[in-house]
Amino acid sequence: VNSLPEFDVEFALDKRYSRLNINSSPGPDGFQNAYLNCLTRTFADKLASRALASHEYMATQYFSGALPGWFYHLDTSISLVALCKVTPIPGQVTPVRPLGLGNCRRRAWCSTIVGRVTKEAASVLGPEQVAIGKPAGIQSMAIAAQIHLFHHPEHVAVAVDLTNAYNTVKRSAIMEGVRETEGAKRLSRLYHAILSPKSTIKGLPDTLSQQGCQQGDPLSTLGFCCAINKSVKTVSALLRAWGGLVIFDADDGLLIGP
User: What are 202-209's contacts with CB under 8 Å, separation 24+?
Assistant: First the structure.
């Protein structure tokens, strides 16, 4: 299975680290984006430069899928934090949902590698899916829907929100979708290494994730889109026969038709 050898050796992590939001919460490893961002600075003793070089080396090993299985098992663990999506109102119960945070370093690395295959993958996932290859996917979805409904006022739009989608998609479906998607299939070996069926969830004692992938992780988003691609294409073909439109931004979608 092909993986890293098709990519450049250097990953230019300094550029990625320098753009990180230093106020982000740390993951299970305890490191913050501020630490990774600091490595891009130049110091007289060159310690940061040597540390950054070690990160580059580890990234090449990580993406080749050649590290020991226990490393990927630990690296894919997540910690749970409470996410409040609305402004709290005094005297009312505020809805809170658990949000899984992975390692900051891993997220930065994954963003870099996904960027190498985005163009190829988008050519397969599009035009129905806009989460890959579109900088503002959700906005693209909204604009496409508005234009379509303007020209077809007799059509209706049905919103699709897949509840807990990332945690319920099967690992086998992700692997199959990745192998069948240009660009993404170059990362098949890496997906096999990181998609452990039993990743640890920090914050819930003795709890393991039996399936699914981590929302917010660029590799997981790509894998999720690959997994649902067949289903999205099938529904799209049915609606297009009636002049309709199907468009998805990862687990959020719109079905538009008569």
Answer: 202/28, 202/77, 202/78, 202/79, 202/80, 203/79, 203/80, 203/81, 203/98, 204/80, 209/78, 209/167
